[in-house]
Specification:
Number of helices: 5
Strand content: 15-25%
Bound molecules: zinc ion
Helix content: 10-25%
Number of domains: 1
Distance between the termini: 21 Å
Largest sheet: 8 strands, antiparallel
Length: about 260
């Protein structure tokens, strides 16, 4: 039996937002926004990226002491889920903000990235584990408790687009010489986010460490101290989603500010 809980998410754009879609010669639009079924969308991957970043930032701000470069609980340190780290990311790992698993460092001492994974590929320095972010959103080879869906705008694209022309022209003046589509401010997007509370078949429950058979420290951040579902839902779901303040591209041009409200 699977027990789950739905949350209604409403995103309101406070500034125009721009999340690029795939161009089509028929539409005649050079830089279209992401559209599904005639409606502007915030793709699940975009929302997930913003959400992931919010959880990471929260963990670092709350549980990491920048002065001593020490974690209050090392198990809460997030991973960077990419195999090639940028110089900036490399520095974050060096300073202890993010974990790294790989046994070998690259030439010049740079870290080789590797996010949380299961089962272990045997290239980890020590018995690996799953970080809190991947516990919720999924690690490589292991499902999480939350599936992040697409957000859909209520307004049809034709209505959005006619509203866009003027704005686009205004923005074009400031730099690019190609027009682009955007979603105006004041647009509302909605979706339903589903969280797994309990899955009796796979023996897992939100707030508790999962029983993983392979050699791993697994959900070490929860193993000795399980957390209540209510606590988890507030701290890692509602509060983190509502902390997302920007989304999409062109942020330096005054784009991207949003407000998110979560209702259970
Ligand atoms: Zn992770
Ligand atoms: Zn490993």
């Amino acid at each position: 039996m699977i027990e789950q809980k739905d949350f209604g998410i409403e995103l309101t754009t406070l500034e125009p937002i721009r999340i690029g879609g795939i161009g089509s010669p028929i539409s005649g639009i050079d830089n279209p926004i992401a559209i599904v079924g005639g409606k502007a969308v915030v793709p699940g991957s975009t929302l997930k990226g913003a959400y992931r970043w919010e959880i990471e930032r929260y963990l670092i701000d709350t549980y990491f002491d920048r002065a001593t470069k020490k974690w209050k609980d090392k198990n809460l340190q997030p991973c960077i889920p990419s195999t090639k780290l940028s110089p900036d990311e490399n520095e974050l790992v060096q300073n202890g903000l993010y974990r790294f698993y790989n046994l070998f460092q690259q030439k010049g001492g740079d870290f080789k990235g590797d996010g949380c994974h299961y089962p272990c590929t045997g290239k980890c320095r020590e018995l690996h584990e799953i970080c809190p972010v991947c516990y919720f959103l999924g690690a490589n080879g292991l499902e999480g408790f939350i599936k992040v869906p697409f957000l859909y705008a209520k307004t049809a694209v034709d209505e959005l687009y006619s509203a866009n022309i003027d704005r686009a022209v205004q923005t074009v003046k400031q730099g690019t010489n190609r027009p682009y589509q955007l979603v105006p401010d004041g647009t509302k997007f909605n979706c339903t986010l589903t969280v797994i509370l309990k899955d009796t078949v796979r023996d897992r429950e939100l707030g508790k460490a999962r029983n993983l058979k392979d050699k791993t420290r697994g959900d070490a951040w929860l193993a000795p101290h399980p957390r209540s579902k209510e606590e988890i839902i507030k701290e890692f779901i509602i509060d983190r989603l509502e902390s997302i303040k920007t989304i999409g591209g062109y942020k330096s041009k005054g784009f991207g500010k949003v407000d998110i409200k979560v209702k259970s």
